[in-house]
C-alpha cells in the first residue's frame, strides 16, 4: 500500500456483518480525513463495499465461515492504524499486530495486554458495539448511520412481497412448508410474491416455490445467489421482505424496506432491525411453562425451538400490518393482474 496514512479494518465476515459494521466504517471515514481506509474481508463483499462508499479498498481474505483468517495479504509499509471490528480477540488482535501497525484499536483482551480498549459487552447490539469502541478512542459514531441509497436500476418486481427462505445455518431456517403456506396465502390475496435464493440454495428455494404453487420464474438467484445490484433493486422496490435472521434482513434495514424478521437462536436485541424503522420482529423466547429459553446456537444444525414458535398466521398478520402502514413514497403492495 502506498500514499498517505492508511487504516486497515478487519471484518472478514458476511453481508449482515458488513452492514452492521457500516456505521463504524462511516465513523472512521469522517473521523480520520485524509486516511486511506481498507477493509479486510472476503471477495464476495466487493459490491457491498462499493455500494457503501465508506471504504477505499478491499483486502481479500480467505477463511472458513466466521473464523479469523490465517493471514492478511498486506503489502508495503505497515498500516498506520489497524481496527479490529471482527471480534473480541485474541486471534484477531494478534493477526493485526503481526502487520506491525502504528496503533491498534480493539476491545481489551487479557491475552493481548498491549492493546488497550474498552471492555467487551456480550449483551450489546452489534451496531452499538462497534460504535462504542470507536467512541472510546475519541471518534463520534452513530449506530443509526446505516442507510444505503437505493440503486438507480429499476426493481425487477416492483411492489412484490419478497420471501427469503434460506439461511447459512439450519438453526435460523424457518421450515420451507411454512414459507410455502405464507406464499400461497399472499398469492391468494392478489399480492405478487418473489422468492430469493442465496448461494447453494437454488434447489431448496425452487422446492419451496413448487409447494406454494408458484412458477419457477418467481425464484430469483442461481448457483451464486442474486447479484448484489439486482438484490438491492429488488429489495428497494419491494413492498415487504419476509426473512430470518440473515444478511438480507440487514440489507432491508439499510434500504428502508419494510421487513418481517423471524428470530430464533439469537435475540433481536443483539441483531434486530432498528426499532424506529418499518419492521416487525417475531420472536418467542419463552417455553410452554413461561420460562425464558436459554440462548441457542446461531450456527446449529436444526431449526431452533424459538424460531419454530413463529406461526404462519403471525407472519401473514405482520405482512398485512406493514402493507397498511406503508410509509408515504414507498411503492404500495402490487396486486397480481
Structure commentary:
The protein has 337 residues and is of the alpha/beta class. The chain has 2 domains: 6-136, Glycogen Phosphorylase B (Rossmann fold); 161-324, Rossmann fold. 31% of the residues lie in helices and 13% in strands. It has 12 helices and 11 strands. The protein has helices at 15-20, 22-31, 46-52, 91-97, 126-136, 176-188, 202-212, 228-236, 247-255, 268-271, 305-308, 312-324; strands at 6-10, 36-41, 57-60, 81-84, 103-105, 161-164, 193-196, 219-220, 240-244, 259-262, 279-282. The strands form 2 sheets. Strands 8-7-6-9-10-11 form a 6-stranded parallel beta sheet, with helices on both faces. Strands 3-2-1-4-5 form a 5-stranded parallel beta sheet, with helices on both faces.
Please render the helix and strand layout as text.
Layout lengths: L5 E5 L4 H6 L1 H10 L4 E6 L4 H7 L4 E4 L20 E4 L6 H7 L5 E3 L20 H11 L24 E4 L11 H13 L4 E4 L5 H11 L6 E2 L7 H9 L3 E5 L2 H9 L3 E4 L5 H4 L7 E4 L22 H4 L3 H13 L13
Parallel strand pairs: 1-2, 1-4, 2-3, 4-5, 6-7, 6-9, 7-8, 9-10, 10-11
Helix pairs in contact: 2-5, 6-7, 6-12
The number of helical segments is: 12
Q: How many domains is the backbone divided into? A: 2
Order of helices and strands: EHHEHEEHEHEHEHEHEHEHEHH
Mean pLDDT: 91
- Overall 3D form: globular
Structural category:
alpha/beta
Q: Determine the fraction of residues in helical runs and give it as a percent range.
A: 25-40%
**Second-tier CATH architecture of the largest domain:** 3-Layer(aba) Sandwich
CATH class of the largest domain: Alpha Beta
The CATH homologous superfamily name of the largest domain equals Glycogen Phosphorylase B
Q: Which fold name fills CATH's third level, the topology of the largest domain?
A: Rossmann fold
How many strand elements? 11
Radius of gyration: 21 Å
Strand order of the largest sheet: 8-7-6-9-10-11
Question: What is the first-to-last residue Cα distance?
Answer: 56 Å
The biggest sheet amounts to:
6 strands, parallel
Unreliable runs, pLDDT <50, ≥5 residues? 330-337
Beta-strand residue percentage: 5-15%
Assembly state (oligomeric): single chain
Amino acid at each position: 500500500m502506498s500514499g498517505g496514512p492508511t487504516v486497515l479494518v478487519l471484518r472478514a465476515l458476511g453481508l449482515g456483518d458488513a452492514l452492521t459494521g457500516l456505521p463504524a466504517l462511516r465513523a472512521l471515514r469522517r473521523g480520520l480525513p485524509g486516511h486511506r481506509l481498507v477493509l479486510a474481508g472476503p471477495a464476495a463483499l466487493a459490491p457491498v463495499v462499493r455500494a457503501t462508499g465508506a471504504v477505499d479498498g478491499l483486502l481479500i481474505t480467505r477463511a472458513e465461515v466466521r473464523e479469523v483468517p490465517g493471514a492478511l495479504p498486506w503489502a508495503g509499509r505497515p498500516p498506520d492504524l489497524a481496527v479490529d471490528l471482527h471480534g473480541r480477540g485474541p486471534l484477531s488482535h494478534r493477526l493485526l499486530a503481526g502487520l506491525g501497525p502504528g496503533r491498534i484499536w480493539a476491545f481489551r483482551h487479557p491475552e493481548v495486554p498491549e492493546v488497550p480498549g474498552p471492555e467487551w459487552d456480550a449483551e450489546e447490539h452489534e451496531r452499538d458495539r462497534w460504535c462504542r469502541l470507536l467512541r472510546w478512542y475519541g471518534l463520534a459514531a452513530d449506530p443509526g448511520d446505516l442507510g444505503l441509497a437505493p440503486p438507480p436500476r429499476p426493481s425487477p418486481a416492483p411492489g412484490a412481497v419478497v420471501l427469503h427462505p434460506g439461511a447459512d445455518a439450519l438453526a435460523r431456517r424457518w421450515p420451507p412448508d411454512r414459507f410455502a403456506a405464507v406464499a400461497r396465502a399472499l398469492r391468494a390475496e392478489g399480492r405478487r410474491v418473489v422468492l430469493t435464493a442465496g448461494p447453494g440454495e437454488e434447489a431448496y428455494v425452487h422446492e419451496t416455490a413448487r409447494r406454494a404453487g408458484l412458477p419457477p420464474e418467481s425464484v430469483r438467484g442461481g448457483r451464486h445467489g442474486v447479484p448484489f445490484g439486482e438484490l438491492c433493486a429488488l429489495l428497494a422496490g419491494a413492498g415487504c421482505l419476509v426473512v430470518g435472521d440473515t444478511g438480507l434482513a440487514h440489507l432491508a434495514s439499510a434500504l428502508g424496506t419494510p421487513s418481517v424478521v423471524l428470530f430464533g437462536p439469537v435475540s433481536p436485541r443483539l441483531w434486530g432491525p432498528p426499532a424506529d424503522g418499518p419492521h416487525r420482529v417475531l420472536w418467542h423466547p419463552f417455553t410452554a411453562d413461561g420460562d425464558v429459553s436459554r440462548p441457542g446456537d446461531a450456527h446449529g444444525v436444526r431449526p431452533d425451538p424459538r424460531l419454530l414458535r413463529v406461526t404462519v398466521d403471525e407472519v401473514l398478520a405482520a405482512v398485512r400490518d406493514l402493507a397498511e402502514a406503508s410509509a408515504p413514497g414507498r411503492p404500495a403492495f402490487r396486486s397480481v393482474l
